[in-house]
Amino acid sequence: MSGPQPLEEEAYDMSGARLALTLCVTKAREGSEADLEALARMFKQLEFESTVVRDPTAQQFQEELEKFQQAIDAREDFVSCAFVVLMAHGLEGQLKGEDDQMVNLENLFEVLNNKNCLALRAKPKVYIIQACRGEQRDLGETVGDDIVVILTKDGHQTIPTYTDALHIYSTMEGYIAYRHDQEGSCFIQTLVKVFTENTGSILELLTEVTRQMADAELLQEGKARKVNPEIQSTLRKKLYL
Q1: Per the domain annotation, does 241 fall within a domain?
Q2: Which of 10, 24, 40, 239 has the fewest CB atoms below 10 angstroms from its CB?
Q3: Where is each Caspase family p20 domain found (predicted)?
Q4: pLDDT tens string 76-107
């Protein structure tokens, strides 16, 4: 009787165009420019075509993402992957636009899903969200010493609507996200450092991001704080940048 078999490794085809859209509210968010500079450096190194929109209103978050989707679907060349970076103040499931109005993250995520963006159907869509998800603060705890692919009746291959997406939140549900006034956010700076200095699948890189952030001591309001990202994945294959 044979034992467990190693998984066959299948990776996304990354030979085509790589596209990125960053929507960043800088109003009352000191350190945002440092994060934008770091992201620009990362996207250049990873050969992404990158677009930045500063200080979008809540409605513009939606409109700019829809324009991004329309531009992707209108392209004649092969598109491999899309990154969307969303940076703003926020609550769980919502971001605050420059006009102090709220936009629902679910509405933003839907724009590029397998139903609504044909050019990205079955291709990776990565969302990076640098925003608070609540008001809780993590003081840390002391550690002791000691995809289903279905063939329809007519032979067509189908996939679920919401596969091939990766949502990377800067903090856990219910918690605030920290940002330094000059140096930018711990999350964006750590992510850029790991993505530009290491190789591996994106989930392996994100595990390293989580490890480094868990090791870091953040001083906020005169007290030591802890923060770690949360990763939600429906990727069906390995993603190498």
Answers
A1: no
A2: 10
A3: 29-136
A4: 999 999 999 999 999 889 999 999 999 999 99
Range of the domain at 65: 17-233
CATH number, domain of 211, equals 3.40.50.1460
Does the residue 136 lie in any domain?
yes
> What is the gyration radius of the CA atoms in the chain, in angstroms?
19
Q: Angle CA(29)–CA(219)–CA(31) in degrees, nearest 5?
A: 20
Residue 1 domain-assigned (yes or no) = no
Tell me if 94 is assigned to some domain.
Answer: yes
Q: Distance (Å, rounded) from C-alpha 185 to C-alpha 58?
A: 22
The whole-angstrom distance between residue 224's C-alpha and the CA centroid of its chain comes to 26
Instruction: Give the residue carrying structure tokens 């945002």.
Output: 32
Q: Cβ distance 222 to 70 under 8 Å?
A: no
Q: List the structure tokens of 66.
A: 């829809």
Residue bearing tokens 């990727």 = 235
What one-letter code names the amino acid at 121? R
For 183, phi then psi, to 5°, come to -90, -10
Write down the pTM of the prediction.
Answer: 0.89
Cα 64 to Cα 56: distance, rounded to the nearest angstrom: 8
Provide the number of structural domains found in the chain: 1
CB neighbourhood size of 109 (10 A) = 18
Catalytically annotated residues: 89, 132
Task: Give the whole-angstrom CA distance, residue 129 versus residue 115.
Answer: 22
